[in-house]
From TrEMBL:
Pfam families named in the record: Chitin_bind_1, Peptidase_S8
Assigned keywords, A-Z: Chitin-binding, Hydrolase, Protease, Serine protease
GO molecular function: chitin binding; serine-type endopeptidase activity
Family named by the database record: Belongs to the peptidase S8 family.
UniProt key word Lyase: no
Protein name: Subtilisin-like protein
Length: 214
């Protein structure tokens, strides 16, 4: 749903349909590594729809295989295409949720799924209350489900085992915070996977990932 206009959109308006919105900002997701705050990474995209017709959000920026117009018009099966393009849109958010749906069905063979059961399962596995809106303050979040798609694994791994120094926990392949030398301070892993020493990072009721502190 690449529209921020008011109104009900088909088919997302229908019952038992999973309406998917987009999160992310171009400048951040275009980089090789996501270097930004949670409010940037999990912000509702400026082109995404929102409100009651949107059930869940997923990243809307991808690097996808690129086929130029001349290649499509003169298709040659023998040619190998290795070009990529940076693209945006809820057309990329929706397939992520589709993939999660397929995974959920394959891992729960004892459940006879219909649309509503699958939708409920997707929402159950998703992460709640982590979305932001840097474009319109909190206006778009007032009547929008604050739900980010997740497959229930909640673990992020690097393809080359490389992680930013200050990132930890389930968002960094279970990486632990390093011990601060010559200090009695604990180096704790916060709820959003950042190492730090203040109460913001170390208090369990604030979501501290205790297993990944020093």
């Amino acid at each position: 749903m690449n529209s921020i206009k008011e109104g009900s959109y088909i088919p997302s308006f229908f019952n038992n349909v999973i309406g998917v919105g987009s999160v992310g900002i171009r400048d951040l997701y275009e980089n090789e590594y996501l270097k930004g705050s949670s409010s940037d990474i999990y912000t509702i995209s400026n082109f995404s729809n929102y409100c009651n017709c949107t059930d869940v959000f997923a990243p809307g920026f991808v690097y996808a295989a690129y086929f130029s117009e001349d290649f499509v018009s003169t298709y040659d099966r023998s040619k190998i295409i290795n070009k990529y393009m940076f693209a945006k849109g809820t057309s990329y958010s929706a397939p992520i949720v589709t993939g999660i749906s397929a995974l959920v069905i394959s891992e729960n063979k004892d459940i006879i799924f219909n649309q509503q059961i699958l939708k409920n399962k997707i929402l159950e596995l998703s992460q709640n209350d982590i979305l932001y809106d840097r474009y319109y303050s909190t206006e778009r979040l007032k009547e929008t489900p604050n739900i980010f798609a997740n497959n229930g694994k909640r673990i992020v791994y690097s393809c080359n085992n490389s992680y930013l120094e200050n990132i930890c926990g389930i968002y960094a392949g279970f990486k632990k915070c390093f011990k601060i030398l010559d200090s009695n301070k604990m180096n704790c892993c916060s709820d959003d996977g950042v190492c730090g020493t203040t109460s913001k990072y170390c208090l369990p009721f604030k979501g501290c990932q205790q297993n990944f502190g020093d």
